[in-house]
Structures are given as C-alpha cells and as structure tokens.
Amino acid sequence: MSLPESPIALAVPPTAAATTARPGRRTRAEDIREQLADEITRGQQPPGTLLDESALAARFGVSRTPVREAIRELAASGLIDARPHRGAIVARPSFERLQNMFEVMAELEALCAGLCAQNINPAERRRLETLHADMGEMMRLGDFAAYREANEQFHASIYAGGHNDYLVELTLATRQRLSPFRRAQFRALGRLALSHLEHDRVVTAILRGDRDGAAMAMRDHIAIVHNAYEKYAQLI
Q1: Which domain holds residue 42?
Q2: Which range has the worst mean pLDDT, 15-24, 88-97, 209-218?
Q3: Crossing angle, helix 28-41 and helix 64-77, to 10 degrees?
Q4: What is the dihedral of CA 108, 113, 119, 120, to 10 degrees?
C-alpha cells in the first residue's frame, strides 16, 4: 500500500535529512509491520492471537529477521506483547496508555507547527501549499491509500519547517509508536474530509506566521485523531 514517488520533494535541511526522510524503497520489515498493524487494528488478529515468527516468515516469504524487527516495532506501539522465549501475542494498549501517548504526540506536533510558522522558508512554504492542495484532490477522489501516505509527508514537512533537528527526532520516534492507530483512524466514516479541514487550519496559521495559532490548530488536530481512532476501535 505505497504511494508512487511524489513530485513534491520535501525541503529538508541537510542536517535533518536522516531523520525526516526515508529512502524511497521500503524495507520488508516495514511492509510486514504495516500489514500486521492493519490486521490488528481491523480486528482480523484479535487480542490473544499468537504471532509465530516461523509461520509469519513463511507467509511473507522472508527470513525471520524482518519478522522479528516488525514484531519489535509493534511491541513498542503496544499492539503486541512480546515475551522472551515465549513468543508474541496480540494485545492492545490500555486506554490510559494510549491517551498518554497521544497527549505527548499532540504537544510535540504543536511545538513543531509553531516553530514551522516561525521558521519556514519560502521554498518550504510553496511545497507545503502544493502538498496540501494535492491532498485535497486525494480526499475528493476518496483515495485512502494515497492520502494516508501523503499524510506522512505532510507532517514530516511541518517537522522539517521548524528547523529543529532534535525536536524532529523526538517527534518521529513518538509518531512511529502511534503510527498504527493514526493510520487506522482514516477508516472512520468521513474522516478524510475532516482531516483535510483540520490540516487547512494548520496550514493557514503556518502561512500567516501565526505561531500560537498553528500550535493550537495542530494540538486540536491530534486530539481529534485520537478520538477518531477510539470511535473506530469501538466498532471492530
């Protein structure tokens, strides 16, 4: 479920390139992690299901190494409980744990958006506007896969626009842990249109140079993402 290489290259300072951009070619571990995360958040792999490394390696046609890496990343998100020498089972983080994770994510992204409004350069402004417009077309077409992938670029461009490498590192690390839940919330009815509207408020504030407004809009956006995931999770 990948998006073709976008013509919109994100403007990432050289010192931040390693943390804000991934190589165009995805690793097998990333593909496996994303597939399993989707199955778990859809309810296709219910809590208590044993994830056998050998069986998964055979299923995906890989060695156990990328499977083990995918399981490690899923454990960091709280989607599975990895037990040494006993295998891994599907879990779900407690409401409190997930709430804590989203609260931290909201503050980190709010800080990124605020700094972006203050520090974004002209080239980055143009690219952010173009990406936001392209995502509007994806939303109108109902292209969930393309929108979800572009959403990663959208947030990464805001992190980079703040020009604070250490903050980018912290934000990406937290985002990685929440990635399965953030992706799942797009399945909620009408979520694409609402997400684009929330993005519009963030972009408008950034382009105005309104640091406080951008931070507030982003904080609200992440809170809504959390709520959307919880509502979706109640339906599965």
Answers
A1: 28-90
A2: 15-24
A3: 50
A4: 130
Please compute the mean of the pLDDT values over residues 225-229 and round it to a whole number.
81
pTM of the model: 0.70
Same domain, 208 and 221: yes
Could you tell me if 182 and 155 are in contact, meaning their C-beta atoms sit under 8 angstroms apart? no
Q: Which is nearest to 110 in space by CA: 225, 222, 192?
A: 222
Give yes or no: residues 65 and 152 share one domain.
Answer: no
Indicate whether 171 pLDDT > 50: yes
Question: Number of folded domains in the chain?
Answer: 2
Query: 202, exposed or middle or buried, with CB in 10 Å at 0-12, 13-18, 19+?
Result: buried
> Of 39, 71, 90, which closes a domain?
90
Which of 90, 119, 142 is at the close of a domain?
90
| Helices marked H in 185-210 | 191-208
44 plus 146 within the same structural domain: no
Answer yes or no: are the C-beta atoms of 144 and 192 closer than 8 Å. Answer: yes
